[in-house]
Amino acid sequence: MDLYTEIILDHYKDPQNSGTLTNPTVQVVEHNPTCGDKIHLDLKITDNKVTQIAHESEGCAISIASMSLVSDEIIGKSLEEILKLDKDYIFELLHVEISAGRIKCALLGLAAIKHAILQHQQNG
Amino acid sequence: MIDFPFLKTGIHYLDNAATTQKPASVINAITEHYENGTANVHRGIHSLSEQATDQYEATRQAVADFINAKPEQIIFTKGTTESINIVAHSHDFTAEDEIIVSALEHHSNLVPWQQTKAKLRVIPLKEDLSLDLEAYKKLLSPNTKLVAITAMSNVLGTITPLQEIIDLAHANDTKVLVDAAQYASHFAIDMQKLKPDFLALSSHKMLGPTGVGILYTAHDLKPMQFGGDMILTVSQYESTFAPMPTKMEAGTPNIADVIAFKAALETLTKIGFDKIATHDTELLNYAIEKFSAHPEVTLYTPPNQAAVLSFNVKGSHPHDIASVFNEFKVAIRSGQHCAEPLMNTLGVPATARMSFHIYNTTADIDQAEKALEKVIKLFS
Ligand SMILES: Cc1ncc(COP(=O)(O)O)c(C=O)c1O
Fold first, then answer.
1. Residue B313 class from Cβ within 10 Å (0-12 exposed, 13-18 middle, 19+ buried)?
2. Contact at 8 Å (CB) between B196 and B217?
3. Would you call B319 and A58 a contact, using CB atoms and an 8 Å cutoff?
4. What Rg do the C-alpha atoms of chain A give, in angstroms?
């Protein structure tokens, strides 16, 4: 199967929710040290729900498309719901088979979101 | 013709700087040892043990012949990384001492030196990506205790001016360690001419098995590990150590792979480094010609380049390049190649890299160009 489907290429070339928020509740930077991918993520959290998200991502098509796709999906979801999302959920969003070597790329965006939420919860 | 069984897979393997494929003679030597020759070395009177010991030591002699050194100067390690760490461990550097490395180094010839007390000095690259020898001359000082330098860059394929670097260091009373992990698979090395103090290499990049490396040393060294085999006498509370190189090889070594490494050296010798160099140049020039015809491609081409070609494609990340190449059955490396500081020098997050060896042909590059055209279509 072709890895670079139209969905992935579209989201890579024109990612949803890219940029920064003026008043984020929480901010994180997520790295993938093996390839140098980097995501700056801002979340706005209101009433235990993600209400706004913005990211600035440098990286490969898989990591950026994944970040873009998941960013659209989590708006309105509760923090607990988001923390339960797993890799199968991401694979469904991407609609392609991800080989072992690219799994880290595919999961970077979700990892960034979960880190941001955990950081927010720790800060009370 | 040398038999490389992997050729049957139909994969266009252009990741030889990471590790090379193995000839049948190497694979057979491993099987032969485990089927008919398994025994420990240096510890038995029985024939199998004597045979294993003879074969193990025969590889040491073969390595010595291969690089024109003496067998007692050859230490078996598990690879270049361990070889370099042994040298770093063996020296007591002080905060006044300085160690010079180059901007081209693989992490394994950088991180061990960062762990010492010595200050690191770095030979920069010039605009054309060659080493700045004038800067090197200025870096050499009375405090310079060691120069640790690659003979060939795993990212750019740059051949460094080794002899000049070593001679200048020695004139300054400074020792030199050469990282020959890439170089030793493509060029002949002569210790009597080059005269480095230490040289490290890896079998697996030279058509041989993984898990075997060499540290050549012109000096006595301090053991990093202690235990069986490396001792002379042991009493309950203290021990004396065997002479070099035995004292550097504690414990049961990687017997099968060391024995099989000899078959790899014989293969390289049989092919001949003249032929390897000619073949490398032909493929590199062909790849540069093919890839530079596409304006979306950036090629990294230093002077004195061999067998390695790093590149980028406009609008695409190297991981995506490698994934598309993989769809075309072309195996290349993408990422930072264990050389993060060099990526920063080049001003890119990563590169894609093709690297060649004797079994590659222009057909592999033609297939790579087809994959490249797909990358350009998708991303540029
Ligand atoms: C230039 C260079 N130095 C050192 C190493 C480390 O070799 P090894 O991983 O076999 O220890 C490599 C290979 O990865 C290399 O290309």
1. buried
2. no
3. no
4. 14
Pocket of ligand 1, beta carbon within 6 A: B 17, 79-81, 106, 108-109, 150, 154, 179, 181-182, 202, 338
ipTM of the complex: 0.87
In contact, B200 and B215? CB cutoff 8 Å: yes
CA distance B120 to A78: 50
Look at chain B and count its residues.
380
Q: Compute the distance between CA of residue A26 and CA of residue A29 in angstroms, rounded to an integer.
A: 11
| H-state helical runs in B7-109 | 24-36, 47-67, 80-90
- Residue A114 sits at φ, ψ, to 5 deg, of -65, -40
Interval between CA B154 and ligand 1 midpoint (Å): 8
Q: Is the CB of A4 less than 8 angstroms away from the CB of B378?
A: yes
Structural tokens at position B36: 């008919």
Residues 6+ apart with CB under 8 A from B269: B66
B64 vs B172: CA distance, rounded Å: 28
Specify the length of chain A in residues.
Answer: 124
- Render pLDDT for B306-337 as a digit per residue (tens, 0 to 9): 999 999 999 999 999 999 999 999 999 998 88
- Substitution site in B155, B202, B308, B353 for ligand 1 pocket (most atoms within 8 Å of beta carbon): B202
pTM tops 0.90 = yes
B240 touches B233 (CB < 8 A)? yes
Mean pLDDT of B258-264: 98
Which one of A2, A4, A11 would you mutate to disrupt binding with B, by most B Cβ within 10 Å of its Cβ? A4
User: Alpha helices, DSSP H only, in chain B?
Assistant: 24-36, 47-67, 80-90, 111-114, 133-139, 162-171, 191-194, 255-271, 273-292, 318-327, 340-346, 362-379
Cα separation, B139 vs B240, in Å, equals 40
Q: Tell me if residue B202 falls in helix, strand or coil.
A: strand
Helix H or strand E encompassing A114: helix A103-122
Angstrom distances, CA of residue B24 to CA of B6, B157, B283: 9, 27, 24
Residue B100 CB contacts under 8 Å (≥ 6 apart), including other chains: B120, B121, B122, B123, B136, B139, B140, B144, B146, B147, B148, B149, B169, B174
Q: Quick check: A36 and B349 CB within 8 A?
A: yes
